[in-house]
Amino acid sequence: MPTATKTSAKASKGASTKTAPAAKAGRSDAPDAIELLMTDHREVKALFKEYDKLVKAEADAGEKQVVAAQICVMLTAHATAEEELFYPRAREVLGEDEDLVDEADVEHASAKELIAQIEAGSPDDPLYDAKVKVLGEYIDHHVKEEEGEMFPKVRKSDLDLDAIGEEIAARKAELMGQAGDPH
Asked: Which one of 18, 37, 113, 119 is most buried, counting C-beta atoms within 10 A?
């Protein structure tokens, strides 16, 4: 069966990087691990853009706090699922390129520190907007490395990305539920 998975993964590689929301509905049509993680990347990038618009519009603190909280919850669930389920398997198949996973782990640690500061703070704090902006910059850098280097190498492996995708989706749903988020 790994050959079929690898074939479908290669087929989806040439397809558009956008995953249709309807693909999440059925289990057999669920996105593979890499598609799921890339969807998360796009969704959180949109939230950072929304936050930036609120800053430029001088929106009230409550609106900014809601978006910042969404960013933090989403990134925490994404990073946790990635660290628990994707990175260990990626490390196994990357061989001499496993340093990509080490770098990603370090980037996650930096992001988690900023997330903790944002969650402990308030939009009225002098550095709050700067912390959200820097977190966005960290994430942009991290996403470029994952999508440009790690993901293509993992996709070429024999990992069952469909099965890992299902595990990631379930773990994220569990984590988001714990955070009180309806997603």
From this structure: 37
HEC string of 96-108 equals: HHCHHHHHHHHHH
Q: Is residue 7 within 8 Å of residue 153, measured between CB atoms?
A: no
Tens digit of pLDDT at every position of the chain (183 positions): 333 333 333 333 333 333 333 333 344 567 899 999 999 999 999 999 999 999 999 999 999 999 999 999 999 999 999 999 999 999 999 988 989 999 999 999 999 999 999 999 999 999 999 999 999 999 999 999 999 999 999 999 999 999 999 999 999 999 988 765 444
Other C-beta atoms closer than 10 Å to the C-beta of 6 total 17
Backbone angles phi, psi at 52, to 5 degrees: -60, -40
Q: How far is CA 119 from CA 84, 86, 115, 133, 145, in A?
A: 22, 26, 6, 14, 26
